[in-house]
Amino acid sequence: MTTRRSFSIEEKLALLHEAEEIGITETCRRHDLSSSVIRRWKRKFQDEGVEGLKPGYPRIDPQVRRLEEENRRLKKIIGDLQLELEIKSELLKKTPIGTRRK
User: Fold this and answer.
1) SS3 for 23?
2) CA torsion sign, 9 to 12 to 16 to 21?
3) Distance from C-alpha of 33 to C-alpha of 24, rounded to nearest angstrom
């Protein structure tokens, strides 16, 4: 099994520069890369500049992910409680005054 390599923006720029000097095929052989990778980086660099070479999938801190999950869970609980209160309130409005429990 091969692991996915990640390249910094500086490494990508250096590889693009090398590909311009000696060619995409030779650069790919030297660094064991697919030519489609170099071409994609080149296209993104031409379209978006250095911003286009940033990683596409930002890593999320596990603690932030845990907090976001807890936040979603708490919002659901609050929503359920709010719905329950609204239902009880509607039922109290519909119940005649003489039949209400004390």
Assistant:
1) coil
2) positive
3) 10
Dihedrals phi, psi of 33, to nearest 5 degrees: -120, 160
The count of C-alpha atoms lying within 13 angstroms of the C-alpha of 27, restricted to the half-sphere facing its C-beta, is 20
* Structure tokens belonging to residue 100: 């209400």
Rounded to whole angstroms, the Cα distance separating 72 from 22 reads: 52
Tokens linked to 13: 């720029």
Q: How many CA atoms lie within 13 A of 7 on its CB side?
A: 14
For 30, residues 6+ apart whose C-beta sits below 8 A from its C-beta are 18
pTM: 0.53
pLDDT digit string (tens) for 44-93?
Answer: 999 989 888 888 776 778 899 999 999 999 999 999 999 999 999 988 88
